[in-house]
Amino acid sequence: MGGACSRKPERDSEDSPCRGLSRRFCKSGSLKWWTSSFAYPSVDFHLRKGDCPSLLELCIKKINEDIDRYNSFSMLPRDISQQIFNKLVCSQRLTSVSLEAFRDCALQDLDLGEYAGVNDSWMDVISSQGSSLLSVDLSGSDVTDFGLSYLKYCENLLSLNLNYCDQISDHGLECISGLSNLTSLSLRRNDSISAQGMSILSGLVNLVKLDLERCPGIHGGLVHIQGLTKLQSLNIKWCNCITDSDMKPLSELVCLESLEISCSKVTNFGISFLKGLQKLSLLNLEGCLVTAACLDSLADLPLLSNLNLNRCNITDDGCEKFSRLENLKVLNLGFNDITDACLAHLKAVLTKLESLNLDSCRIGDEGLINLAGHRQLKCLVLSDTEVGDTGLHHLSEFKNLRSLEICGGGLTDAGVKNIRALSCLMCLNLSQNCNLTDKSLESISGLTRLISLNVSNSRITNSGLQHLRTLKNLRSLTLESCKVTAYDIKKLRSTHLPNLVSFRPE
Known about the structure:
It contains 13 helices and 17 strands. The protein is an alpha/beta fold. Helix 1 packs across helix 2 (78-90). The chain is flat, with a radius of gyration of 26 Å.
């Protein structure tokens, strides 16, 4: 449909920002359970009207424009050379020729992820930064095993990102095996890394973060990382080769705080090996072959606060065991066959919950009574459930609720009136409720903290836009498949919504 609900991202999406020139992937930002990226400061020349740029900003801008005139920046202070490099990358003006000017500049951070043209010929200059180099991102590049051999001269390297580098194999890992200071290594989506190649990682004893997402050949290789006792974050999601036997070595990772094993073949038995991970706070089991029986093992994790059981085999049977996870703050139960009976077990115990996802569950109006006492709840997803107008009445006591999503339901204007007291709401998604009219916008008009609003596929008209004039903080407005024109939204933005930067239709 033209106004399709934007709440469900493609399952193949990634979190890293796209610079627009990647030949392999175009990634769209979305909320995830756990994300990370390498981000480095760059000079921002988007000054406000009347602001005067500094002399340094003007110089860097001029150098960027005339980059072909310079042969070397090695005599400049490192921080200035770093800013020039960052600006060239940001403006897509760095080439293999202009890169030569940065030879021996002792740069610390080289963020070249998804940058076009990066290959082995760049690695000589990259490695010339020597012991000063701390962080390198070569994601999506054409760097091969041979190119990685240059990094052996960068013994102080702390962070290395090689996502989507499909020409790197086990031999490439051998080239970086001597970088014992590495604390972060990311190898997402690599078909060439094998279980045998994983043995090379055993020498990286200072690793704190390891990302092996979508590496289909690592089954049986996790035994080689059981000695990485400093590891705090491990991502092996979308590795459908992972089974219960791969879980046993993880029991040795006593410092592990974040573990993602979604979309694997792990069952309740495999989860039992995690009981000794006393520091584990985030566990992503989305799409795994687990049932509510796994909660017996998870109850032994005293710090577990973030649990994703989306698309698992959770039913009402055994849901009473949720009462043992009293420290949970984030719980995702979307796309499971649970009913209001399950929510009854969350009523009195899980009082620390800040985020609850019940997307596409068989939850009805009466089930929401069990959430009335959850005063800490800030984010609630009820899309494609059986919740209607009556159920929303039970939400009137969630004074701290910041995000509410009820797509594809049977809401009417009468139901929307029940949420107008939720004055802390910042994100509201009511798309696919085809009976909503301009009266709903009138009810929403008092939610002045809103920064995002989606009422697509409803009966909203141009006349209803007048009710949005009070939402001065609104940055995103989606009204696709409504009787609203882009012209009227632009007019509203120019006169009343100065912060609106994203709108549909556009």
